[in-house]
Write a structure and sequence with these properties.
This protein is an alpha/beta fold. The chain has three helices and eight strands, in the order αβαββββαβββ. The protein has two domains: about 55 residues, 2,3-Dihydroxybiphenyl 1,2-Dioxygenase, domain 1; about 55 residues, 2,3-Dihydroxybiphenyl 1,2-Dioxygenase, domain 1 (Roll), CATH 3.10.180.
Length: about 140
Amino acid sequence: MSTATTSETRTPGAGLQPWRPRVLHVAYHVKDIDRALAFYVGVLGMQEQMRVDLSATLHEVVLNFPDSKGSGVILMWDTARETAPAIGDGYSRLVVHVHDLDAALSHLRTHATRVTKEPTQAGPMRYAMVQDPDGYVIEVLQIKR
């Protein structure tokens, strides 16, 4: 195995810099859009930005937090689908940064949000895991400075 390092491996994403990549949205397939919107808008406080009909039965709604600079969540649903979408077991989730983890969890619990991992300290970070109504994991993260 070679230990030689090229300038491209030393500079992460060097070839991508002209494209200026950034995370825009995470997309989830949901079974019941009204239930999902009640959580993401009514509980988390996101705002609907737009709706798009991708086909006669496949639709999506784009959500962002009021103070975000473009990143958010896309909820997709298929009116012809009869079964709930399968959720993968990989390490994927939406991460929501908060200034007060305890206050955020208190708010989420008042809305019957399932907490799957109680607050945990990890270096300068403190986080907990919750689930949305479809079972998707959301990490609620506080970074202590």
